[in-house]
User: Which sequence fits this backbone?
């Protein structure tokens, strides 16, 4: 079934960062009845030590350290200079200095066998894993992550298998800081996937939701604004969807033409919160609220 | 009057308590629903339940008799399959409000989402504000009264029953048409609205099935006799 959530702290003067990680964990944990097999988050607007932050994962538990080292070497050969490094289990987080093109960097990493690239961002990163948000928080210290905004997801897999890579969010490779979480199923996934692959786009998984990230990346590469890309998706994507997208500057959502998947939004002077269900908004606003339910064929974006 | 604090209770505990109290005939107030799901489900005794706050999905569904007053929003499927009784909601309801209801009265003070009154089989659904896409989809019986606008495809695939729209109609659904409202019919609607504090005398458009795709009264081949 899946649940989605997002939060944005509006810029008020020179405020630093906000407890985006903590908020997202609370919001998504309250929706584990919508999905418990995996969760994932994008935290945006962080203070990064370097030009880029990368999230890398290997599917090889036995050789994790070696495989991740190889990925790191490949990255360095491509011109990346590592500033900070943390590794735990099959996960690797790096912040680097890098002057070159993102696709070259990404390809170098992805050409390392057994390696998946969850995100490259200037100010945001994707953290995803099997398990519930609170369980993930224990492993990945999500509650300590601060930023300006972010999105999150709880998964009940319906179309593809359960593993770390198939969790959301999906990164709109090669656009730094563009990620997507999705509730629904895309019925023209295979057709569009073939079309994008023929055009040279890369898919890392068999998850239909990944298509949305590729679709948006393609639109953005062709000069579309995020808003216009979201709008075109209403007719180009077939199936049911409520999806949220995070970018460097903001958040957006798109709701399918059938109003098949839920969404509620709440805006105050300080915060914008959006989620599949009101109970998630109550994780951020612990009082009775006025929430809005977007209707079918609706798109909206908010910028910081 | 008995107060039940939903905070700290599981859904099963809360509903169990409500059923016990309903049987005893006392008026019940539920505090801190916290937009949780499945609150006040499956209660068959006539009783009065007041819920002070927003509820999640399937609130007050599968009822047969109670009067449930909710001060807040509701998620999807408020009052699903209500057999008899009354539900009132002060603010907005999500999609599929009054889904497959068979009797009783359901009043939404604010707006309702898509598929309001989907597959209704009786009773009256009233929306003070607007209702969404596919309102009255596959309706079989009953009345839907929307004071505001309705979205696209109102009354799509409806069999019987009627939808009264006070505002704009986004578009008519498949096999739906508009029809004149009788005077008595209109008076009845206005009286119903007034019972919920709505005194404005809206001009309603009545939407019913056009019955061009409706073949359920057709005889089977073997049932037809040669005259």
Assistant:
């Amino acid at each position: 079934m899946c649940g989605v959530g997002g939060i944005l702290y509006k810029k008020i003067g020179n405020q630093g960062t906000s407890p985006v990680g903590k908020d997202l964990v609370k919001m998504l944990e309250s929706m584990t009845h919508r999905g418990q097999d995996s969760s994932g988050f994008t935290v945006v607007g962080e203070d990064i030590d370097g030009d880029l932050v990368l999230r890398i994962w290997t599917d090889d538990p036995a050789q994790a350290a070696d495989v991740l080292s190889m990925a790191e070497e490949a990255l360095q050969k491509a011109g990346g200079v590592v500033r900070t490094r943390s590794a735990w289990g099959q996960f690797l987080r790096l912040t680097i200095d890098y002057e070159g093109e993102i696709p070259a960097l990404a390809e170098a990493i992805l050409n390392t066998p057994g390696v998946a690239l969850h995100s490259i961002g200037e100010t945001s990163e994707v953290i995803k894993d099997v398990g519930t948000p609170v369980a993930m928080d224990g492993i990945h210290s999500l509650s300590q992550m601060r930023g300006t905004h972010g999105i999150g997801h709880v998964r009940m897999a319906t179309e593809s298998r359960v593993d770390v890579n198939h969790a959301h969010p999906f990164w709109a490779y090669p656009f730094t800081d563009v990620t997507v979480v999705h509730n629904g199923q895309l019925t023209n996934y295979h057709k569009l996937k073939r079309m994008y692959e023929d055009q040279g786009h890369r898919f890392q998984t068999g998850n239909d939701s990944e298509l949305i990230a590729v679709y948006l990346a393609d639109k953005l590469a062709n000069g579309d604004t995020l808003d216009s890309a979201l709008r075109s998706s209403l007719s180009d994507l077939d199936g049911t969807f409520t999806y949220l997208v995070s970018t460097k500057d903001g958040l957006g959502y798109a709701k399918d033409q059938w109003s098949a998947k839920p969404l509620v939004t709440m805006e105050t002077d300080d915060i914008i919160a959006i989620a599949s269900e009101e109970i998630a908004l109550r994780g951020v606003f612990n009082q009775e609220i006025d929430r809005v339910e977007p209707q079918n064929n609706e798109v909206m974006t908010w910028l910081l | 009057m008995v107060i039940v604090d939903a905070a700290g209770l599981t859904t099963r505990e809360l509903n169990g308590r409500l059923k016990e109290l309903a049987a005893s005939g006392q008026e019940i107030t539920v505090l801190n629903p916290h937009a949780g799901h499945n609150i006040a489900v499956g209660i068959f005794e006539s009783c009065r339940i007041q819920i002070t706050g927003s509820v999640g999905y399937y609130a007050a569904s599968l009822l047969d008799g109670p009067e449930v007053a909710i001060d807040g929003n509701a998620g999807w499927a408020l009052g699903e399959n209500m057999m008899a009784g009354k539900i009132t909601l002060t603010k907005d309801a999500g999609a599929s409000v009054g889904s497959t209801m068979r009797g009783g009265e359901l009043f939404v003070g604010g707006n309702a989402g898509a598929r309001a009154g989907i597959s209704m089989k009786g009773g009256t659904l009233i929306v003070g504000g607007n209702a969404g896409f596919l309102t009255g989809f596959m309706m079989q019986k009953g009345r839907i009264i929307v004071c505001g606008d309705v979205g696209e495809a109102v009354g799509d695939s409806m069999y019987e029953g009627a939808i009264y729209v006070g505002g704009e109609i986004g578009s008519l659904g498949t096999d739906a048409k508009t029809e004149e409202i009788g005077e008595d019919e209109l008076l009845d609607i206005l009286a119903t609205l007034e019972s919920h504090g709505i005194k404005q005398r809206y001009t309603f458009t009545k939407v019913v099935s056009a019955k061009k795709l409706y073949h359920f009264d057709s005889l089977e081949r073997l049932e037809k006799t040669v005259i």
Observations:
- The first strand of chain B starts at residue 2 and ends at 5.
- The CA atoms of residues 6 and 181 of chain B lie 44 Å apart.
- The first helix of chain B runs from residue 11 to 24.
- The mean pLDDT of chain B is 95.
